[in-house]
Sequence to fold (356 residues):
Amino acid sequence: MKKNNSFLKSYKNLKVLVTGSTGFKGAWLCNWLYLCGSKVIGVGLKPEKDSIIFDSMDLKKKIKQYYIDIKYFEKINYIIKKEKPDIIFHLAAQSIVSSSYIDPLNTFNTNISGSLNILESVRVNKIPQLVYITSDKCYLNIDKKGSYKESDYLGGFDNYSSSKASAEIVFHSYFHSYFKKGNLSTVSARAGNVIGGGDFKKDRIVPDVIKSLKNKKTIYLRNPNATRPWQHVLEPLSGYLLLGHKLINKELKNNLLPSWNFGPYKKNCKKVNFIVNLFIKEWGEKQKIVIKKNKQFKESKLLSLNIKKAKKELSWEPRLSLNETINFTIDWYRYFFLNAKTEKISNYQIEYFLDQ
Ligand SMILES: NC(=O)c1ccc[n+]([C@@H]2O[C@H](COP(=O)([O-])OP(=O)(O)OC[C@H]3O[C@@H](n4cnc5c(N)ncnc54)[C@H](O)[C@@H]3O)[C@@H](O)[C@H]2O)c1
Fold:
């Protein structure tokens, strides 16, 4: 049965600020909000060398973009104070586990202090709604068989995970100290391994596999037997937008824990090896796989999110099958390699998603 999409109407003419607008998820979110008729303000660093999504979706023409570093309170506060958005989606982060080993200072400063700057600016400027994105990796991962639910312990054995767990702890401190009044107005969201067109980040499985397939080069895997909660980027974004809608309409009671998981159904939690072979099959050309372990990186074997709360309280559910997720991803990259501009395919994929 087709799901209800009326929550998107809340965004028409709304002033929405998205941090991380030049990144993979932020760019998709900005494009989606633009289609909903929002006045979108983006905050992020200039796109990195390989990052094509911001330009390929023509976001420069669609949103008002600020290139600033959220590590500096004065800079981000100046924008938030000036723009006074109705809602903020905070996605900006140093998001790569391997980079968190190479540059721990930037990782902790961005993910903890940068996020703290957003919370403080929301507080002092009385911004009415905030959706604060962290990660599935914020949970203390003990490789347990079951899935992690929102009330589970936070923690991390690597810099990225612990920076995200810390960002959650700071969020909860602000929530209890300042925001826990009336209905929920600030929430944190934790999503799983997000895939889809437009991600060109180094050391992420899907972009690495796509680059190898396109260039007919060997695929290197660090951790082929790790199980991850794979989901198309539109899945968690639909969860964030639904959460935002509920906040705007004051539909969430403050006796609910303000954190929310958005992950796939258990059947989509597959091993890296399985997903990579599915990509190779759908791409249509064989490619050699070589296992290249990196002993420095502590990577969990198993990670799965419990999504019962989002299902019960928000009526949110994943919409795409694993095959649709893989095919959407491959179709987007193939289109990009031929056309460079990706507005048409991105908008088509959003429409298809909303038809499910
Ligand atoms: N992609 C995934 O699989 C995944 C999974 C779980 C959680 N997340 C989280 O979702 C969010 C978005 O992820 P993504 O995949 O789009 O990441 P990304 O790396 O593609 O984009 C990160 C964005 O943050 C911005 N940014 C980084 N440091 C900044 C700074 N100091 N000041 C201002 N902007 C800065 C970048 O410019 C970019 O716009 C992040 O918080 C990430 O940790 C991602």
